[in-house]
TrEMBL record:
Pfam hit, one: Pyr_redox_3
PANTHER family, sorted: FAD_NAD(P)-BINDING DOMAIN-CONTAINING PROTEIN-RELATED, L-ORNITHINE N(5)-MONOOXYGENASE-RELATED
Species of provenance: Streptomyces sodiiphilus
InterPro entries: FAD-bind_Monooxygenase_sf, FAD/NAD-bd_sf
Protein name: NAD(P)/FAD-dependent oxidoreductase
Length: 495
């Protein structure tokens, strides 16, 4: 990169959010942009997560862009390799590769109040941009717990999102720490090859049957030849999930019916009453992410698989000690302990108009206007920002809504003319966030009796959207200039 490298828009990240933003820019006729990607390939979380059994828990025909339908998904729930291939196809189909700069991690981004642009530092050199779109995603930076003795463990240690394919698990004593969405896919995939598998469970998840199947060649042909059938399928999947939202956000008690389904699902596979008791959650279903699996419970019932109901407390050499004192020997420890969601690392690297970082502004909790823009950060927008997560549907729907907001943001800047920037008014951010938190009070995520990664350190839910995807699309269809201040270049400043 040249020292004088300048673009109109710099997009950070090349997952669904970043590639979606790039496509929208191209479709608007904007070609003066770059996508800055820290890795050596596109794909985001679907590039990074390559663990055994990795797959999506949202139906394929809903987990794809509406403007880039794929009539030939091979399964109703796609595996990692199929989703990553889809993102590569999107990249090529929409001519995005000339705009993508790989191995270009954003080390810092700071707003220049004089020049009204962003100054961005990367390993390949600096650049400036009129606008920054951060699409780093919430599930991009793995979180490892601070376990006493971990540094002295003589075996292999890695996180599920950084799977070591060179390490052979066959015949090993393996510890799986965590029972979240990754763990329930990994455990059934590796239990046949390991000598012994110990699962450290801090909190049992609610698990429902996974209605996965192969999509027949005829269905794929039909969706290709008659696009309205594909659209109808997507619409049906969307409608079912929209109808579920009321139970999550207004009437959590209705979810008791779903709990009964999950309980029967477990009882069919787990006959040991003690193990069944250990695997039964004590909180309302939906409070934590609902998981889908047909082989999780059968795997845990195997004689060489142990479930430890206390979280991992410490490690003494090759001995792992749980919070209840239970011990297990291990040759390898796999952490399925989630990601930095409410403390996204990118927030430490972005410095706004006040000279403070986004992390400093968010020290009391994340907050963004319409999940997209933060006060004192001009011409800065987040894709999948605070309170845009979902508990039951496809995040691609939320991303596309934010792309509408991005398009109108840029259109408003064009209409203003001259050198200008938009920054959300603090009171607008505060009002939006207050309303979100008020609506959150009745939801299952706040009343269900659990502690989840949806909540920040102070117990506030700054992650999930308390409504339907249709409602969010309505809220982000256009940018209301009344919620923003217009920043102009100083009189006499260089043009």
């Amino acid at each position: 990169m040249r020292a004088d490298d300048h673009v109109r828009v710099a997009v950070i990240g090349s997952g669904f959010g970043g590639l979606g933003a790039a496509v929208r820019l191209r479709r608007m006729g904007i070609t003066d942009f770059v996508v800055l990607e820290r890795a050596d390939a596109v794909g985001g979380t679907w590039r990074d997560n390559t663990y055994p059994g990795c797959a999506c828990d949202v139906p394929s025909h809903l987990y794809s862009f509406s403007f880039a339908p794929n009539p030939r998904w091979p399964r109703s729930f796609s595996g990692q390799e199929h989703i990553r291939a889809y993102l590569e196809w999107v990249t090529d189909t929409f001519g995005l590769r000339p705009h993508i700069r790989l191995n270009s991690e954003v080390e810092s981004a700071r707003w220049d109040n004089e020049e009204l642009h962003w100054v961005i530092d990367t390993p390949r050199g600096p650049l400036t941009a009129d606008m920054v779109v951060s699409a780093t995603g919430a599930l991009s930076d793995p979180k490892l717990p601070d376990i006493p003795g971990l540094s002295g463990f003589p075996g292999k240690v890695f996180h599920t999102a950084r799977w070591d394919h060179d390490y052979d698990l066959r015949g090993k004593r393996v510890a799986m720490v965590g029972t979240g969405a990754s763990a329930i896919q990994i455990v059934p995939s590796i239990e046949r090859e390991v000598d012994r598998l110990t699962v450290f469970q801090r909190t049992p998840p609610w698990v429902l049957p996974r209605a996965d199947r192969r999509i027949s060649g005829f269905e794929q042909w039909l969706h290709s030849a008659l696009p309205f059938t594909r659209a109808a399928r997507r619409r049906l999947l969307w409608t079912i999930r929209e109808l579920q939202v009321g139970a999550f956000v207004r009437h959590p008690g209705q979810l008791r019916v779903v709990e009964k389904i999950a309980e029967r699902h477990m009882k069919r596979a787990v006959k040991d009453p003690q193990l069944r008791a250990a695997l039964t959650p004590d909180y309302r279903i939906g409070c934590k992410r609902i998981l889908l699996s047909n082989d999780w419970y059968p795997a845990l019932a195997k004689p060489h698989v142990d479930v430890v109901t206390g979280g991992l407390r410490e490690i003494r050499g090759s001995t792992l000690v749980a919070s209840d004192g239970t011990t297990a020997e291990a040759d390898a420890v796999i952490f399925g302990t989630g990601f930095h969601v409410t403390d996204m690392p990118i927030a430490d690297r972005v410095k706004g108009a006040n000279g403070t970082t986004l992390a400093e502004e968010w020290q009391h909790g994340m907050a963004a206007l319409r999940g997209s823009t933060a006060a004192a950060f001009p011409n800065f927008m987040m894709i999948i920002g605070p309170n845009t997560g979902l508990g039951n549907s496809s995040m691609i729907l939320m991303i596309e809504s934010q792309l509408n907001y991005l398009a109108d943001y840029l259109a408003k800047l064009d209409a203003l003319g001259g050198r200008a920037a938009l920054t959300p008014r603090p009171e607008a951010v505060e009002n939006w966030n207050r309303d979100i938190q008020e609506r959150m009070r009745r939801t299952v995520w706040n009343t269900g009796g659990c502690t989840s990664w949806y909540l920040d350190a102070s117990g506030r839910n700054t992650t999930v959207w308390p409504g339907t995807t249709a409602a969010f699309r309505k809220e982000t269809r256009t940018l209301d200039l009344g919620e923003y201040d217009v920043v102009r270049a100083r009189e006499g400043a260089p043009a």
